[in-house]
Amino acid sequence: LNESLPNLTKRDRFLRACRGQPCDRPPVWFMRQAGRFLPEYREVRAKVDFLTLCKTPDLAAEVTFQPLRRFGFDAAILFSDILVVPEAMGLKLSFGAGEGPRFADPVRTRDDLARLRPIDPGRDLAYVPAAIRAIKAGLPDGEALIGFAGAPFTLACYMVEGEGSASFARVRTMMHADRETYDALMRRLADAVADYLLAQVEAGADAVQLFDTWAGLLDGPTWAARVAPYVRTVLERLDHAGVPRIYFAAGGAHLLPHLATLGMEVAGVDWRSPLTVARELLPPGTAVQGNLDPVLLLGPADTAVARAREILVEGDAAPGHIFNLGHGVLPDTPPATVSAVVEAARGFRSRHWT
Amino acid sequence: LNESLPNLTKRDRFLRACRGQPCDRPPVWFMRQAGRFLPEYREVRAKVDFLTLCKTPDLAAEVTFQPLRRFGFDAAILFSDILVVPEAMGLKLSFGAGEGPRFADPVRTRDDLARLRPIDPGRDLAYVPAAIRAIKAGLPDGEALIGFAGAPFTLACYMVEGEGSASFARVRTMMHADRETYDALMRRLADAVADYLLAQVEAGADAVQLFDTWAGLLDGPTWAARVAPYVRTVLERLDHAGVPRIYFAAGGAHLLPHLATLGMEVAGVDWRSPLTVARELLPPGTAVQGNLDPVLLLGPADTAVARAREILVEGDAAPGHIFNLGHGVLPDTPPATVSAVVEAARGFRSRHWT
C-alpha cells in the first residue's frame, strides 16, 4: 500500500506540513538549533565574535549545517540575528560579554527616526543573501532552508528601549503617548522586514519565520490594533513569493483568538498553549509548529522524550504539524538529549499517511 | 432608595468585593502602590536601604500609608518583600544597586535544603507582625490592610536560581530532574508561607494575597501537577482564618482554566486576560482583581483613564470586582496619572448597588 506514497525528501516533508498536507511523520527542527549548546559551534565562536559570525557567509553557513549533521533535522534555519535589520538602518549594535544586545542610540523621538536609513537588503545586508546561497549550495541532505526576521514590534522593542527589558515599557508607552512616531517607526520596520525577507526568498529560502518574541507582553486588543496591521503588511508583501510564512508570537496564549486575520500558513506555538487549543482558535488548515518546553531538554532525557511523544500524538490529530520546541534551545542543553528527542520525532508515524 | 443601603467604609467595601457582594463602587488599590514612583518614598529610602526599610516597623508603616494619603486607596498593602521568607529560612539576601535580588547561596541540592531553617514567623519575621500592628493602628481612613507572601513556586524560582531570570530554568529543571528535592523544598515553602500568612492575619491583616509572579512560565498541566498542590496547602491552612485569599498568577492567561480547584475568594488577573474571560473560566462567585496595564500609567492620562473606565464597566458585569493594575506600578509612573485613574475608579457607580 505504502508503495504508492511519495518518498519524501526532508524539504518536501517540511513544505507539505507547512501547507497542511499529510506527511509520513512531522518534520522536525528546533528554534536556535545552531548555537552555544554545541561544542562545534563554540569552537567557531572562539575565533570570531557573534556579529562577525553573522556577517561572514561561509561561517554562518558552517554553523547552520552543524545541527543538521549532528541531529538530522528536516530544516535548516539561517544563522543570524533579528537585530541586523536595525543595525543596517543605522543603529550601533553591540553584544556585551554575557549580556544581551544593546543599541548605543535608541529611537525615542521623531528626530531619532529621521536618523534611520532606508535599506536595500541586497546592498546593506548583502551578507545574508550570500549566506543563504552558501547554505543552499551545501545542505547535507536535501533539508528545507528557513529564512527569518524579527517582527516589527519586537524590533521596535529593542530599538526604543536600547536593550533587553522585562516590560519594554518605552515602546509600549510610545504606542500611546506618541502614536505618530510609533506608527512611522512600525511602517519603516514593516517595509524593511518585508524587503529583507523577499531578498532571503530570492536567494533561496524555502520558507520564512517572523519572530515576535515580545508580542506576548501586549493584551489582545492592543496587539490587534497596534501590532497586527504591520505583521499583516509583511505577510501580504510575501503573499506572492510562493513560500510558507510562519508567525511566532512567544508567550502568546492570549493572542491566539486574535491571530485569525493574519493569513499565515503556520503558527508557532509556545509550550504554554496546547496544540489542540491553538488549532481550535486558529483558522482551519493553519499548520502549527511546536511546542516542547525547552527546559525539558535540561532534565532527564526520558521525561523529555515522553513529553515529545505526547506532543507528536496531539499534533497528529490533523495534518499540518511541525515538531519544534516552544522556544529556542537553552545554552546549557546537552546535545544527547536533543538527539533522543529528535530520534523520537523521526521515529513517529503519522496516522494520516496511509 | 439609596438611604436604605449601608454606608460602606473602605474596609467594608474591600471585604464585600472579595466576597462577591455588591458595593457602591469597586474598591481600588494598586499592586506596588508604595514605592519608588512616590517622592515621599524616595525621601525615606534616601536614609535607609531597602531591607532595613522592610525590617523597621515604623518606617514600613510610614511608607505603607503614603499612597493612602495621596490617592485615597481603599486598601493598604503591607510594605515588604516576598524574599524575606527565604531570608528568614537562612539564605543570604542582597539587593544590588539597580539590580534585582540575589541569594549568595542558592538551593540546588538535597544538602542545600538541609541548610534551611524551619521558621517561626513570630520570632524569625517578628518585624512583619509588628509592622502590621503599626499599620492597623495608624490607617488614615478605615482602609483594609492586605498581607501578602510570595507563593511557594515563585519563592523557589529565586531560591534555586539565586537571582532573577527570564526562564528560571534551574527550578524548572529540578522539578523534573530531582523531583524529591523539588517536592521537599515546595513542602517547606508551603508550610513556611502558611505560617507566615497566619501570623499576619493574627496581627491584623484583613486579607492576604499570594503572589505567584513566575507561575506563568509553566504550561497548565505542569502548573496543575507541580505547583497547584502547594498553593492549595497554603490556601487550605488559611481556610479558617476568616480572611479572603487572593491568588495572583502573573502572565497566567493560559492557567485560568486550571485555577478552578484552588478555592480562593479572589483571582488576580493581569492585563492580558480580559476580566470577562477570567470570570468565564473561574468558579462562579470568584471575585476578580485587576487589570489595567501598568504601562498605560506612563502615557497620556486620558488614555489610561479611558481604559480604566472600560475595565470598570467590564468588572461591573457581576458583583465582585476589585479595581487594580494588572501588575505592579512601574518606577517611572507619574503620581498625577495614578491620581487621575484612581479618581475615575472612585467616581464609578456600580449597577448592582440599588
Describe it.
Two copies of one chain form a homodimer. In chain A, helix 8 runs parallel beside helix 11 and helix 10 crosses helix 11. In chain A, strands 1-4-5-6-7-8-9 form a seven-stranded parallel sheet. A two-stranded antiparallel ribbon of chain A has the order 2-3. Chain A contains 16 helices and nine strands. Chain A is globular and about 60 Å long. The longest helix of chain A has 25 residues, at 179-203. The first copy, chain A, is of the alpha/beta class.
Q: In total, how many beta strands of chain A?
A: 9
- Main sheet attributes: strand count, strand direction, barrel closure of chain A: 7 strands, parallel
Q: For the CA atoms, what is the radius of gyration of chain A?
A: 19 Å
How would you write the strand order of the largest sheet of chain A?
A: 1-4-5-6-7-8-9
Question: What fraction of the residues of chain A are assigned to beta strands by DSSP?
Answer: 5-15%
Oligomer: homodimer
Largest interface: A-B, 30 and 30 residues
**Count, helices of chain A:** 16
Describe the global form of chain A: globular
Helix content of chain A: 40-55%
The helix-strand sequence of chain A is HHHHEHEEHHHEHHHEHHEEHEHEH
Sheet/helix structural class of chain A: alpha/beta
Give the N-to-C terminal Cα separation of chain A. 8 Å
The whole-number mean of residue pLDDT values of chain A reads 96
Low-confidence stretches of chain A: none
